[in-house]
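Quick check before the chapter quiz. The format below is the same one you will see on the exam, so make sure you can read both the input and the output lines.
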Amino acid sequence: MAGRLKAVPDASRDLISELPLEVKDRILGCLRTPEAARTVMLSKHWNDVWLQHGRLTFDWEFLQCVERCYDDEGITLVNIINNILFFRAEPVKKFTLRISSDDPRAQQSYFDRWCLFLSRNGVEELNICLDTDEEEYKLPFCLLYCRTIKQLIVRGPFIDLPVNACGIFSNVTSLVFCKVEFKRSVNGIASSISIPKLEKLAFGFCRGINKFEISPPKLEMLCVIDYILEVKSRWLAPHLKVIKTLWLCGSSLWHMDVSVFPTAINLQVMKLYDLDFGCRKQLAVALQLLQKCLNLCELHIIAYKSCWKDDKEDASRLLEEPNSGFVIQELKMLNTIKIESFREFSLEMLFMKMLLSKSPALERVVIVKSWGMNASEVKIQRKLECFPRASPNAQIFYAGNYHTSMRDDWSDTHGFSLYEI
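Here is the expected output.
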């Protein structure tokens, strides 16, 4: 009987610490940086894992956590970052730095030092948010020329492009700029910068976008959310030849001359943010732009919630005016339409009527009602279903109240929430 006794597990054994290093590193990756840092108190094994951990996030929440743990009024964000960053045993692959206007601001020299360290130690993903009112940060040149960076998100600093900009962002596949100001053009002329591997480029409320002239041969997605109206037709036109996804805001349509645009032969998805249906100029340019997209498959629109009144007579006149821009050719490949913040105004209904009648491949129409509208969902859906449809397979779905899903799309796609902008 004694030989058949089952072995009793050793309660003192630390099974987690015996896991492979890769598994323990993934565990740290699921924790916030303050929680990951505390694992050094578990054992020497976890201290080694922490020193090799390559994903660090420093933000206001992190600083608050540290100050709660250590009652030291002299502690600063600079001290914290220096003590953690410069003692890494392995490269920092992903680094996030977010400093708001309420934070103790780090000087440009400290910021430059961190960026230089990261650029020399294999950083691949960089998320920099320096949202301060009094401090004017500049993006160091070492990041522009860093060959290991693949994804870069920048908010706040000025970008003063070097005179000779050859070789910048050489291996970057994704660039996102929010509230960034581009200070000067390359050489002050219209020569374009080649960014050979860039696939995704996004601007959120930036200044001087037209100075950032690039010619990325692999660009697939371009997003410009810009209330400053700085997007010029000449700047946008070359990108339309190659991209598959285009995001624009309604205000940027004001100054666009669609006649200079080439046919967007590869464009499959278009998203229009804050399109003002009460502005005939925006609406006309949007429709002209659709005409350039022969292979467009998906159209997403968030209507701008302006205070304009529903003008049924104006909507009727548009149908009678030959040059109004409301008579378009067929959108032969369009199969999905989604309109958010829908209010059943006459111009919106006219827009939907036209799209339904010009989209023979249409399969799915999703309408998201504007928040606070009292119109019956069934009533609106029945009105839309009464419009003539070029596609016998087109189905209309009503998704209830507007819930800013395109803002969520931006966050999922760009790694940066529109709410933060």
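If your answer matched, good. DSSP finds 13 helices and 15 strands in the chain.
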